Request: fold
Amino acid sequence: MKKLIFFLLLFSPITLFGQNYTPSWESLDKRPVPEWFQDSKFGIFIHWGVYSVPAWGPTGDSIGVYDKYAEWYWKKLVDPSKVQKYFMDFHTKTYGPNFRYQDFAPQFKAELFNPDKWADLFKESGARYIVLTSKHHEGFTLWPSAQSWNWNSVDVGPHRDLCGDLTKAVKDKGLHMGFYYSLYEWFNPVYLTNLKEYVNEHMIPQMKDLVTRYTPDILWTDGEWEKTSKEWQSEEFLAWLYNESPVKGNIVVNDRWGSETRSKHGGIFTTEYGLVGDKEGIDNTVFHPWEECRGIGTSFGYNRTEGLSDYSTAEQLIKLLVSTVSAGGNLLLDIGPASDGTIPVIMQQRLLEIGKWLKVNGESIYGTRAFIKSKKSEQINPETNKTIFFTQKNNELFLICLGWPKGDIVLKEAGITNTAKAVLLGSDRTVILKNQGKDLHIIAPGLTPDDHQYAYVFKITGLLKNIP
Reply:
């Protein structure tokens, strides 16, 4: 019996996530990212708050990526910048010169918000986890935070615990629930004048309340860039999160914990519209779990000025998902609901189209890992100009083709094999494998119009074990 107990302890999650981590990056960085996150691959980001009332930002090719973010409306109104004039002109013309940003809060009513319908949509999209903005840089919280009195969704506006309502609906659907949280607040007077007091009496108590109240699976911090992780006391907080919190065994965090931490410390590494960090430190030779986040359009918060051309097509989004997962990452795709709690129809449509593709081809996404750059992958990777991507799962290799192959798919020096088999996901048509020298040719079957997909997946079994 003693041997059995020792065996259970040795291989239980306690040895991975229940050890005592010290408040130092050297210790904290040793904590592994929970496997559920690496298996999930696809999540939905939600930016929703007071900024959803004006729901405005400039668009066009001459506008920088960050300057298009409608959720930065308040900051852009008052900070000198090349786009301030755009925001000020719109604001003054629409609301008058004396209308303050705070006056938008009572108009953020969420009167049509139905968390169960949101959760149904997320489930149908094929997403496995959700990340809601509990508090953006403006400081307004979507739960009754004691630290944000009269600047939260229960005291003003919806008069409703939006974090709590969505958490219940999402968890009821079997999905993982998480929260975005901004460390800094643009105009909080305590933050601006007494950082230590802000951190100790506002930020850390607020984060601990969020974690203990809703037991999320993800804590996605942001706004870290103005201070170092020492000033934010990030190491001390993460030690509490990993050692004592009710989510210590399951929680996933990102790398946004101080001005020096992105792609270096924390949990998953994060990129944003492919820009932040530019995947620095993220490659397939020294692998670290990472995640790309971006909107379906050019803004995270809902932007009413965006037209059809500003939104990615379903085909583009599926390509983004495939290319991200094949490089070992997750995709956190953002939606921006309207202030009334409805999700714009074009966003719903895009999510459902992704979900339709995943119902057929999800086997090549969920639970897979990157086909790691090595001698074997360099050998078989064809020169496809990134029209074919690879994922792997155990002894299965998935070839994801963004277009129907015009001829044979040739895997260079894949090794002579008589045991490999291939199928086209979603089809019962025969896929032929043929050895020619050291190369393996995949001969695709004929297609009918009913077989059309945004991307086609060939699953090959019995091949990887033959590749040196």
Observations:
- The chain is about 30% helix and 15% strand.
- Residues 123 and 185 are 32 Å apart (CA to CA).
